[in-house]
Design goal:
The protein is mainly alpha-helical and 179 residues long. The chain is 54% helix and 6% strand.
């Protein structure tokens, strides 16, 4: 959720200690453990691919797995993944890319279609579970810049860095002392 919120900003502020996380909605399994929605969907796709390779025959090893598949949860996983991707695309396009008037390389105006395509490309990358493999994997400044996403390094702005760290410290203390 934090990464999705960051994509709704006009500017992304990070320093060398900062990271975002992959965008992969989580669901609880029967025992309360979180499962990434996209991992659930990828597992079903793996089974479908195996069936297709075996001329429509389902290998018996998959039967107990599929007995525990809830079609509603599958649909919810698809919906949550799609919503996340759409929100990131829309918010990047609307806010972060709002003041992107021209291409740096060609000096030509940026069209609304180009803004949308670029936002969709970044959203797809951030939502790619098979790339990040874990909800807890940090996406660092270098990863985001490799996606050609502009990041303001607040480590180069001492007053801003001090203010952000002061806020972080105070919030950490408050949260650790309360329920």
């Amino acid at each position: 959720a934090g990464t999705i919120l960051v994509m709704s900003g006009d500017e992304i502020l990070m320093d060398h200690r900062s990271s975002l996380g992959p965008i992969d909605p989580q669901f609880s399994d029967g025992e309360g453990r979180p499962l990434p929605a996209q991992a659930i969907l990828a597992g079903i796709e793996t089974i479908k691919d195996e069936v297709a390779k075996n001329n429509g025959q389902l290998h018996p090893v998959y039967i107990p797995i599929l007995r525990n598949v809830d079609p509603g949860k599958l649909q919810s996983a698809q919906n949550a993944s799609e919503l996340s991707r759409r929100l990131v695309t829309e918010w990047l396009e609307t806010y972060k890319f709002r003041d992107w008037p021209i291409h740096r390389s060609t000096r030509k105006p940026v069209t609304p279609e180009e803004r949308h395509a670029r936002a969709a490309e970044i959203a797809a990358e951030l939502c790619k579970h098979q790339k990040w493999l874990s909800h807890g994997r940090p996406i660092k400044v270098a990863d985001l810049r490799a996606m050609r996403l502009e990041i303001t390094d607040y480590g180069k702005l001492p007053d801003l860095q001090a203010a952000i760290w002061s806020l972080w410290t105070n919030l950490s203390v408050i949260f650790s002392m309360t329920n």
